[in-house]
Amino acid sequence: MSTELLAPLDLAFWHLESDGHPMHLGALAVFDAGPAGLARPAAPERDLLALLAARAAAVPRLRMRVRDVLLPVGGSAWSTDGDFDVRRHVHEVRLDGEDFEAAATAAAGGLMGRPLERGRPPWEMYLLRSADGRRFAVLVKLHHALADGMRAVAIGAGIFDEIADARTTGTRRPRPVPPRSWSAGPGRLAGFALSRMEELGRAVGVGASVVRASRLDPRGPRALSAAPSGTRRLGTAVLPLDAVHAVRRAAGGTANDVLLAVVAGGLGRWLRERGDALPGVGPRALVPVSRRRPGGPPGSGNKLSAYLLDLPVAEPDPLLRLRAVREAMDRNKAAGPARGAGAVALLADQLPPLAHRLGASLAGGAARMLFDVLVTSVPLPRAALSFGGCPLHALYPMAPLARGQSLAIALTTHGGRVHAGLVADGEAVPDVDRLAAALTTELAALGAAVHADAPPTAPAGPAPGSSGRPVPAPQR
After folding, report:
1. What is the rounded average pLDDT for all residues in the chain?
2. Topology of the domain covering 3-169
């Protein structure tokens, strides 16, 4: 039986969960089941559920469950579930209504509010199908202890035809992940001790930054600081990627800067429409940063740090809002993801397992003191994707809500579009769909502001018949 100790941050996510605060992330993948444009004939209706189950069962990581261990004290380990039955994890739901995507979004929100069964491998998949069977979507739920955003993509992508076919033909072979060992050999003890001392020094620095950034009396917007209800709603938005890049080329910065400015503008617009007072500073966003090396193996365990960013929601000028975001993110990047209060996740690596088990409730309540909303970007494979021969139409990522949080926004790019998934507390943010719509409006407003701010383009040469010299283009 394969056994692997939970990494410290995974253990923290495992113990942070409660019935009212499920700690799973996920994605809603909507497929185009129409007859046109299919790469190959679609799987028969009755075979889609069996195909989903077979694809999920073929992912080795999805056969692992969490069990307690004697050593280290308070620790847990991943072990292969000897009683694994994929039928306990893969389900089908029929949806009524003419607007299938709206019905799938509503159903996904409700299903995301249900905690996963902890005695089994912590994941579920749902085949959501229209009443006539012509439209379908797949909802994937993975516990955050099982995967961070990048690893979730690697695991969840196993359901797609292209990934499954490559795995079957052997053209892609995952690298083995060695089990984590708690004990070091005698020859490594000195190096281990020195390494721990260096890590302790880094932890003290991060801890001091966390204390300095903590807000003893956080006063964010009411909608983002309401008492949790344990319910979930999902909002979705689709943004044209070419519009994002047009703003980036004109105003500078990165595409992520543009999207963060759009989120800030959308939050401000939504709060004004609700009649909520705009805060003078913030709300504060936690922006996760992956510590995985580009092109490296997925590895086991969460590998995350984060930046903290005060979103300029009260700034009425879209260009000034974008400038404020760019400058703040530049400062974050200059400090690096391993420094500053946003790197609080790194502290988990310095704590013994028993501390995670005993201090979970205290750590969960501390999230509210650091940030108000999570905004994360999740990368997807750039290749076209399909399931059962049906092309992927849209994919909305979903991030978990920390205790004391009412909103988490996840963004991913596929097919020339940015897909936004907004997970909200169902009672605190019942109008999350209006917030999602505000993102689309704000990207258009930012694009219009950039266009209006651009200097006029001079003609390339003199008009026909003119003896004058060409007018030089204005200097930028």
Report:
1. 78
2. Chloramphenicol Acetyltransferase (3.30.559)
